[in-house]
Amino acid sequence: MRRREFITLVSAAVAWPLAARAQQPERMRRIGVLMNRAADDREGQAGIAAFKEGLQKVGWADGANVRFDIRWGEDDLDTERRYATELVGLGPDIVLASGTMSVGPLQKLSRVLPIVFVGVTDPAGAGFVDSLARPGGNTTGFMLFEYGFTSKWLELLKQIEPSLKRAGVLREATNPASLAQFGAIQAVAPSLGVEVVSISLRDAAEIDRAVAGLADSGNAGLIVTPSAGVSAHSALIIALATKHKLPAVYGSRLNVNNGGLVFYGPDRIDQFRRAAGYVDRILKGEKAAELPVQVPTKYDLIINMKAAKAIGLSLPAGLLARADEVIE
Questions:
Q1: Backbone angles phi, psi at 26, to 5 degrees
Q2: How far is the C-alpha of 189 from the C-alpha of 204, rounded, in Å?
Q3: In the list 30, 173, 217, 301, which could disulfide-bond 92, CB 3.0-4.6 Å?
Q4: Which residues of 35-68 are buried (b: 16+ CB within 10 A; e: fewer)?
Q5: Full set of structural domains in the chain with CATH
Q6: Which DSSP string do the residues of 194-211 spell out, in sequence order?
Q7: What is the per-residue pLDDT across 67-125, written as a single tens digit (0 to 9) for each?
């Protein structure tokens, strides 16, 4: 073999594996998603759509270089635990977890698997992170809201009903996040001339009695904090507010979509969109421990005019002008 032919052959042999490696497709990444809602929940579906859209914008295409495994916890702890175990068993590269009830079971199963959460009220208090600035473990994400924000629910209720003297706060008494929310509401109450009372969500009969008693006191309204307990009794709460003609401010948009009066709170869909950015960064090598927990940047005011008419309430024109959405 002539020298020139030999050099050409050796060069081709060296170049071939390099070219082959360059042409190999990128490894398919696997993202687990554990939602705390039911599969037919419109807000939950919209959140996942926004999450996938956000990932696609930075190069992650479903079926091309990423695969999604989605499970729906249905606001039930046993279901959440079962699906958390199932998702971890599938060996995902990362998991998106919606709500406190989703994060807890996942963390108990793995302190290594990266977890990005959305819609968690108190990640530090729940032990999910060491601190908001430096999470320190395998988990980071997006808080539902800062506690100080919850005082705005009472301010809004006072705007809706200027004669308001008493506000019942429906909450889960054993939930640490609920306690902090209630404290923020209580702190602003004296300046508004409003007495604040706590209404437990233990069972339907207790809710019925407490709301009826509140209505009998006159010049009253409701603040309905977001929680699994509220989700379980949401239809009853909305029906009681209508029956007793009580103005009510809800911390969950779903309640207003289902007939409640006013929602004011963070744009949860935006949190899913922002979570895509964190998932992208972690898949590209950054550590969850070093990505700070983020607070909401966008809040929505949604007003249901049908609910207002049902209780004979005329809402201020300025409030309607400020609304991000008015449901007719």
A1: -65, 145
A2: 27
A3: 30
A4: bbbeeebeebeebbebbbebbeeeebeeeeebeb
A5: 29-145+267-298 (3.40.50.2300), 147-266+300-327 (3.40.50.2300)
A6: -EEEEEE-S-HHHHHHHH
A7: 999 999 998 999 999 999 999 999 999 999 999 999 999 999 999 999 999 999 889 98
